[in-house]
Amino acid sequence: MVDGGKRADIADTLRRDSAGDVLEFAAEAEESADGGRRNPPWLLLIVDDDHEVHAITRVVLGEMMFEERPVRFLSAYTARQARSLLAEHPGIAAILLDVVMETDDAGLKLVRHIREEMGNRQIRIILRTGQPGQAPERQVIAAYDINDYKAKSELTAQKLYTAAVAALRSYQHIATIEHGRQGLERVMEAADHLAGLRSRPQFLAGLVGRAAALATGAHSALLCAAGEDGQPSIVAEAGLPAELPAEAAATIMAALADGQARWSGRCGVAVLRGRDAPPLALCLLGGPFAAGDRPLVELLCTKAAVGLDNLRLYERLNQAQIATVHALGKLAEYKDEVTGDHVKRLGRWATAIARELQARNIFAHELDDWFCDTIGLASVLHDVGKVGIPDAILRKPGRLDEAEMAVMRDHAAIGGSILRDACGGDRHGYLSMGAEIAESHHEKFDGSGYPKGLAGDAIPLAGRIVAVADVFDALLHRRPYKKAWDIAEVLDLLRAEAGSHFDPRVVDAFLAVLNRDGAGA
Q1: CATH architecture, domain 196-305
Q2: What superfamily does domain 4-178 belong to in CATH?
Q3: Which of 355, 366, 409, 406 is nearest to 386 (CA)?
Q4: Most CB contacts within 10 A, which of 69, 73, 310, 496?
Q5: Catalytic position from the list 109, 386, 482, 483
Q6: Which burial class, exposed, middle or buried, applies to 510 when counting CB atoms under 10 A from its CB (0-12, 13-18, 19+)?
Q7: pTM listed for this prediction
């Protein structure tokens, strides 16, 4: 659909601005003569149904360089071909687009496709038309998201070059902003991920992994401390090189000494400065690194330093809780001489049951790694409420009468109250789980237990698990008021009471543990 006037305008443009040029494609090699890699080319898509327009454009812009990057041309002669190329090459920077091709508005429909269906707002669109009356500039600019409008009769070689440079510069700025926005999202997502980790090794491994993925061109990431020998000591790594380059080692030590980031062609170092711990250096090897990646890596290190400070505070709080658990456990042991060995065995059984249930994917919404790691120590507190029971009842060698049993049953509520006060509202710790266990491990699955008469899944899972382990161990060992049972009798009781006293899923898991590991001591 190219008329004679259109061809004459194109030919005239070529004569006036590119006289003597030969119609041939620009070189598109991406390797220099010495085999080194050039910067990646800009992709410019020519969409026009006239082959001569493609040839002229390549002649005029064939040797074009922008920001030390050459231009590589892609050609489409219909809007349908253009759609395929756009899908195949998502990095196209600019498009020189004709309006009238297979239909009178094929180019305009392609604009809609790019902006609305593809959602591509970065590519710069220069509309070129040889029939401006068919697509008036004012109407097109108002109705379509294009970046420039040119009539081919006015588009000299210089104006085409100027329009192309402006389009590439605009694309570069938009791409930089978008890269920064995406980078910030990755930094914040990484910071949120790291903040959720409660293990220092996991935190450090996660940091180097996220940093290596964040920086373009990085093939290794190392987290280093200052070693006693004056050399970096690697505390975490992702893609560790066979040998740390001497230049990188010197850069790391210099950064640790003054706390300043350093970037070179093949090595980037940023520093994590905590409140009360020696600094750490994050070293990226590879490159060349994009300039926009450097502040992102440094921001990640700033966030990670805060995360490490918080992790240290968490560890101290966790250690304080563990010390409190042991102290309360010793207090209960002082009141009840059978508690010491019993709680150790109980902790092992409770942990084993939780892990077995997790492996079976039962109670998946409750049974995470934290639960399994916590229940063993929290179970130590199951009978802490016995500190409030008189010794005459607690150590009575025979059966308790009805009144004495009523007093004894108070220990579940007493234990829960003590531990809830001690945990200070923290719902995710040893003391809070210990409170659940203390007040619910005497509840029964059919609702006939105490202190609240809870039934089924209304009983906290930790309490249901400890109930099975507690009864098993109590029956298997001698107490002042009873002899030890034979293990076969104990197992028969567990099976018989599944569904009434005990959660049958917990009993099944415990029997599987015993079958695999034995009853132990």
Answers
A1: 2-Layer Sandwich (3.30)
A2: Response regulator (3.40.50.2300)
A3: 409
A4: 73
A5: 386
A6: buried
A7: 0.60
Rg (CA), the chain: 37
Q: Which two tokens stand for residue 449?
A: 């237990």
User: What kind of fold does domain 336-517 have according to CATH?
Assistant: Hypothetical protein af1432 (1.10.3210)
Look at residues 460, 472, 406 and name the one whose alpha carbon lies nearest to residue 435.
460
- Residues in the chain, how many? 521
Neighbours of 147 (CB within 10 A): 17
pLDDT digits (tens, 9 = 90+) for 233-252: 999 988 876 678 888 999 99
Every domain of the chain and the residues it spans: 4-178, 196-305, 336-517
68 CB burial (10 A radius; 0-12, 13-18, 19+): exposed
**Pair 60, 84: CB distance under 8 Å:** no
**pLDDT tens for residues 286-320?**
878 888 889 999 999 999 999 999 988 888 888 88
Cβ contact 320:327 at 8 Å: no
> Is 152 among the residues known to form the active site?
no
Task: Give the per-residue SS3 of 364-432.
Answer: CCCCCHHHHHHHHHHHHHCCHHHHHCCHHHHCCCCCCCHHHHHHHHHHHHHHHHHHHHHHCCCCCCHHH
Q: For residues 107 and 130, what is the distance between their CA atoms, to the nearest angstrom? A: 12
State the angle between helix axes of 339-359 and 369-378 in degrees (0 to 180), rounded to the nearest 10: 170
